[in-house]
Every structure is written in C-alpha cells, then in structure tokens.
Design a protein that fits this description.
29% helix; nine-stranded mixed beta sheet; alpha+beta
Length: 538
C-alpha cells in the first residue's frame, strides 16, 4: 500500500496534504538544479571566456595586448594600481559600442582597469568633471549633440593619453571607401604610454620675438599648445639666444620657430643647423620681418640652417591679386593658398570627386624657392599663391598705403611657393626617418583664429597638425597586428532615423491597411450576387 497522508478539504474542494515520495524527489531535483546553476556561474566567473564570431575576429585580442594587460597585475602605484579609462561617447554612437565590446575583452584579462563611460548628451556633471581634470574642449554638432575633442582618455597617476576618432579608425578613400579598425592598437598603445612611454617633446624657440605658447592673445599661441598636448606631445619653451649654449634643443624631437621679430645671429643659426643635421626636425613659420632697412625688411638669418634642406627664404611680402582668392579689405595680404599634393596636404587637395575640402587661409606671408647647393636635397612645394600674385620686395612706406600695391620692377612674379617640406637621408638604418624641415611663410596658421575657423576654412590648422605629426613621426607599434579593412557603413543621423521611423511605423502599415481596405471593398461589391456559371457564360 502507498503512504497514508492526512488531508483536509479546501474552500473549493481541492485537496492539500503532505508530500509523497514523488513530490519529494521533484523538490530535491529542483534544489539540486539551483545548486548546479550557482556552481556553474561561479566557475564561469572565475574562468571567463568570450567567443568572437565576427568575420575578422575584431574583438579577439592579440598576444601583445594580452601580455600588456596581464603585466598590470604588478602595479602598486597611484589610483590603487589601476589604469583608468574614460570613454566620452553616447550609447547610440557606433564607435562607442565597438570600444565598449573591446574593453569587455580587456577586462577579462585583468582586474587593474577602471572604466568610466560618460554620455556627453546626458551625463553633464561627469562630463564637466572630466573637462576640468583633463582640459577637454566640447562643442555641439548641427544635430545638437555634444562632442568632445577626445573620445577616450587613458590615465595613470598624473600621466594621461588622449584618443580621437582618427586614432580608432583608418579610412582609405577611393571608389570603394573602406575602414580599418585600429581600436586595439590605439588603446593598447595608450596604456603602454601612460605606464612608461615617453611623450615626444616639441620645443618652441624664443629670444627673437617668437610667438609664445605660454601666452594667450595675439602675441601668444597657448591655444595651439593645448591642442598639441591633446595630441599627446610634451611642449617646452627653449631660449635659443642664450650665449654660449652648447645645444639648447638636445632633448627635443622638433624645434618650432613660430614667427620672428628679429633674426638669428650667426652663432645661434649654427647651433640650430648642427642639431638638425644630427637628427633634429624643424618647423619654421617665418613671415616677413619688419626692420630698419632700405626695403623695410630684414633677413631671418637662417640661410645656412635651411640650405641643406634645399630651401631659401625670399625677402618679400606676397600680394594676391586674384579676387576669387584674396579677402576684401586686406590689400591682398590675406588670401586662400593653393595646396600641392603631399602626404601632409592630401586632405586639402581637391580631387576628382568634386567634394569640398578645407581651404588654407594665410595672412602676411613671404615666399620661398628651391636652393641649389652641393649636398642639399630637393624640397617639395606644399602651398602656393596664384599666377596673378606677386612678391613685393620693398614695403617701405607701407603705413601710408591706401590701396592694393601694384607690381613694380624687381618684384617677384607669381605663382609663388609659400610652404615647403624637405627630408634628408637617414643617419642610421634604424632611424625612423632622416632630418626633416617644414617651412611656411607665415605664422598666421598657428593662431587661435586659424583653429577656430569654420571647417571649410580650417585647412591651415589641419596643415599645422599634419606637419608636426610628419616631423615627429615614430615607427608604429608592430606587435599589435592590423585589422583587415571593411566597407564603410552608412551613417544614420537623427533626421534619417526619423525618416526610417515614418516609413516603418506609418507608411508601410498604412499601405498594408489601404490594400486590405481595397480587398474588403472588392469583396463587399460581389457579396449576394450569384456567381456566373460556365454554362451561362456560354
């Protein structure tokens, strides 16, 4: 006989009683399943594994990245021994989702990463805190979204590294635009740099009336300094006029001479030349220098410095007479320059696509030419004026000008080259490149107004950043492999998203409803009418 259980009658006659053997076994099975599920979750938490089913294994980490992350276990320094990462992208941004997925894989390899996700549109207080801590600039797009000049910040103690969209993706344009993801290279490289990598040092020369990166306003270029620090450069001021200084640029990667009000002495120029030929790099922005002379112009004193690079400065002031290029009210001294094809100007040269490109605005500019000398190299022209321009070789009495000056005998005929780049041979096979020089005939492209121009007129600022990157370039981190390029996706804006919603939620259902109403009316029109037989039709 089975077990005898005591029972009682419920309100509705349903019987309740003690558990029989079958129910006991079922309860034990449920408890065991719960225990097994808990143990499995604990095991999974300790042995975390992700499966990357993307075609190009986009979220599978390279061995170099895994080793870098696992080395963080030895950190005992600031912030509790953790590297902190701020991602300044909203959840709707496709790049933000991609970075977040990759950082999940990073966290699976180490417990020494502290992640902070800040939505610029909604996390106002967090964004303000990050802006103050890292001096980040923000703005708004045409759609009203808040964007920052850095999309990620990696920090360890007082060291930090900024990442921009250009660091995360490499776009190859052509008939078929493709994108090569570089998130892993950018993030791993940034982590390595904040842990011990040295930033490239840019040294601004002083002592000749140069523009000061520590000062704001017309006489300073502090805005440029902030941008360069966002680009992960270290900025330092060097007095190149100190007497008997052995090598003022000894620990600099690039020497920047940002405009001058006086020329270099022979000794100063010789020190700079020696440093350059020993592997240094020069960024020279040299407008005409006003002085007490017959022409109203005085030389920069840099002839021997530039001669090995095949560049010679002209002592003149470029006047642009093409009304399509010159700005009204500036007597031809402020105009749009014409870019020439080079790696630094590729994004500024209008190609066959007829797409608009940023224009380069220059003001108060001198020209330059190729210097043929033994041992010099051939420079590449980067910018020029038009054929209607000319180089005014004397500006004596310029304070009394009331109209655009006219070309005179002895003036240089256009078109005139106003920017050049040159590279000498490598000093050793292991060097990243040989000594390089970038020379432009005006410092106006370095000013805050140049960087604040609307994008269609911001070509000068883009050229400055590209030139410094070209001068200071180092070999890429080769142990983090490149990802294969994929076709560029379609960018969905708020306007296009709203249009898609209208189609999906209104137009498509509306079309189906109208079709259904048509069928219904057609059926009602034939209801009650006898169908014609085949015999009747005959």
């Amino acid at each position: 006989m089975g077990l005898i259980v005591q029972s009682f009658q419920g309100k509705k006659g349903k019987r309740f009683g003690a558990l029989d053997a079958t129910q006991t076994l079922q309860l034990v099975g449920v408890v065991a399943a719960v225990v097994v599920a808990i143990l499995v979750n604990v095991l999974v938490a300790r042995r975390y594994t992700r499966w990357d089913w993307t075609a190009n294994k986009r979220y599978s980490l390279s061995e170099a990245t895994v080793q870098t992350l696992r080395s963080l276990s030895g950190l005992r320094g600031p912030d509790g021994g953790s590297v902190q990462i701020w991602v300044l992208l909203g959840p709707a941004d496709p790049l933000g989702q991609s970075i977040k997925q990759l950082l999940v894989a990073y966290q699976a390899e180490t417990t020494h990463l502290e992640l902070h996700y800040v939505d610029p549109d909604h996390d106002t207080l967090a964004l303000e805190d990050v802006k103050k801590r890292f001096k980040i600039e923000t703005g708004r797009t045409e759609e009203g979204h808040v964007v920052a000049d850095a999309i990620a910040v990696i920090a360890y103690g007082d060291r930090h590294w900024f990442l921009t969209p250009a660091d995360m993706l490499q776009v190859s344009r052509g008939d078929d635009t493709k994108v090569s993801p570089r998130e892993e290279q950018a993030l791993t490289g940034a982590i390595r740099n904040v842990l011990g990598g040295e930033k490239v040092t840019l040294c601004f020369a002083s002592g000749h009336g140069e523009m000061n990166p520590l000062e704001a306003g017309d006489g300073g270029i502090s805005f440029l300094k902030d941008i360069l620090e966002k680009d992960n450069y270290a900025v330092r001021l060097v007095d190149a006029s100190v007497p008997n200084a052995a090598d003022p640029f000894s620990d600099c990667a690039v020497a920047i001479v940002a405009g001058m009000r006086g020329g270099f002495t022979k000794d100063e120029a010789e020190r700079l030349r020696t440093w350059l030929l020993g592997g240094g790099n020069l960024f020279l922005a040299a407008s005409p220098i006003l002085g007490d002379s017959e022409t109203g112009l005085i030389p920069a004193g840099l002839d021997r410095v530039l001669l090995p690079f095949g560049i010679a400065l002209d002592e003149n002031l470029v006047i642009e007479q093409d009304s399509n290029l010159a700005f009204a009210g500036d007597i031809g001294t402020r105009f749009l320059a014409e870019p020439k094809m080079h790696s630094m100007t590729a994004a500024l040269v209008k190609g066959n696509s007829h797409a608009d490109v940023p224009r380069v605005v220059v003001h108060f500019t001198r020209s330059m030419h190729r210097a043929n000398a033994e041992g010099s190299v051939a420079p590449a022209p980067l910018l020029s004026s038009s054929a209607k321009s000319f180089g005014l070789t004397s500006i004596a009495g310029a304070s009394e000008w009331t109209d655009v000056p006219q070309k005179r005998d002895g003036d240089l005929a256009g078109p005139l080259v106003i920017a050049m780049a040159s590279e000498r041979p490598k000093l050793s096979p292991s060097a990243a490149h040989g000594p390089r020089a970038f020379v432009i005939g005006t410092p106006s492209v370095l000013t805050q107004s140049s960087f604040r121009e609307p994008l269609p007129m911001r070509g000068g600022a883009l050229l400055v950043e590209n030139a410094i990157s070209w001068l200071a370039s180092k070999p890429q981190v080769l142990d983090v492999p490149e990802r294969s390029a994929v076709a560029a996706g379609i960018r969905i804006t708020d306007a296009s998203r709203a249009e898609i919603q209208r189609y999906v939620l209104l137009l498509m259902p509306g079309a189906v409803v109208l079709f259904a109403i048509g069928i219904l009316l057609s059926r009602r029109a034939t209801e009650g009418k006898p169908a014609k037989s085949k015999k009747a039709e005959e």
